[in-house]
Amino acid sequence: MPRRLYVQCRLFNVNDRLATINLCDRIDRWIDMGLLVGMEHTFLPIRDDPVNVANELEIFNNDIAAINECSGLTGFFDGATYDSGCSFEIGYAYTLGYPINLVTTDFFKWTPSGSSNFFYCSQLLNTVATLAAVPDMNPSISDYRQKNLEQLERVFSILQNNLVFDFGTIKPLKPRIEALPIEYDYYLDPNFQYTEAGRYLQNQIVDAIKAANKTFVYGNNMGLILTDIENLRKSGRGIFYSDVFEPDLDSGILQGIAYGIGRKPYTYASNSKQYLEGADWYGYLNCMITYSAETIVTSINELTGLIQS
């Protein structure tokens, strides 16, 4: 198997694409310098995937195959929601035992609910990945360009050190994360809990599970993250909440883990907003979320029927 870094990329605007291409060029230079031992040049899907891809299912399959052929994952990760497909790729790569090294330049930190602990992006992301973070906010417009360039250089220096730690010598990957014997029929996405609409839906789902004499466990991304991942691994099926244009990054990561352990989830998505990419119509969910789910559930009645069956 080649030693190679899969570089995730938010595709939807020029700035993100250019930033990722520049990141690949920088990492490739580190490889040429011998800092990352035995590594091939980076794999960037938008640059290296096969051409003439016919549809989103092919994109999904190509990216899963590419991740399987790599040995680590890296990329920019700025923003609280970011891109759900990138979140999925992190969760899936985590199940393969890959080192995951990400860059964030946000000065925001986030906490779920009333917790006093704040994290870059999320506590879950900080558990499954190593983040290179320089959260400066320059309050002055004077010399703003130079200050931002200096911030990038500092964050790249941290990333380089993190990558050298993981790939400066040849070492085996961590064991793959597998499913565990089933103790719960369903695992409920913790992100149901953070809005009134989500809590209302979760109560209806819990009622349906109890009515079907089945069992469940609440997801919890506020406490012991590894325990929460273990509960997902002990569940027959996850039920995830993707009812916004860009689902919370934790939902994407957890769905990647569920897919990686071979238990494809139900993904709740009643949002009817759609979009065009070029001349092609798509639904509003990222293809990595769509095709890693057992089914996309569009109403609580449909979900209740699945639980009862």
Structure description:
Strands 6-5-7-8-11 form a five-stranded parallel β-sheet, sandwiched between helices. A four-stranded parallel β-sheet has the order 1-2-3-4, with helices on both faces. 39% of the residues are buried. The model has no long low-confidence stretch (mean pLDDT 90). The chain starts with a strand and ends with a helix. The chain folds into two domains: 5-167, Rossmann fold; 184-308, 3-Layer(aba) Sandwich (Rossmann fold), CATH 3.40.50.450. It is of the alpha/beta class. The chain contains eleven helices and eleven strands. Helix 4 runs parallel beside helix 9. Helix 5 links the parallel strand 3 (100-104) and strand 4 (130-133).
Terminal residue distance? 42 Å
Radius of gyration: 20 Å
The SSE order reads EHHHEHEHEHEHEHEHEEEHEH
- Overall residue-averaged pLDDT value: 90
Major sheet: 5 strands, parallel
Q: What structural class do the secondary elements suggest?
A: alpha/beta
CATH level-1 class of the largest domain: Alpha Beta
Count of domain modules: 2
Helix content: 40-55%
CATH architecture of the largest domain: 3-Layer(aba) Sandwich
How many helices? The count is 11
User: Could you tell me the number of beta strands?
Assistant: 11
Strand content: 5-15%
Unreliable spans are none
What is the 3D shape? globular
Strand neighbour order, sheet with most strands: 6-5-7-8-11
Q: Which fold name corresponds to the CATH topology of the largest domain?
A: Rossmann fold
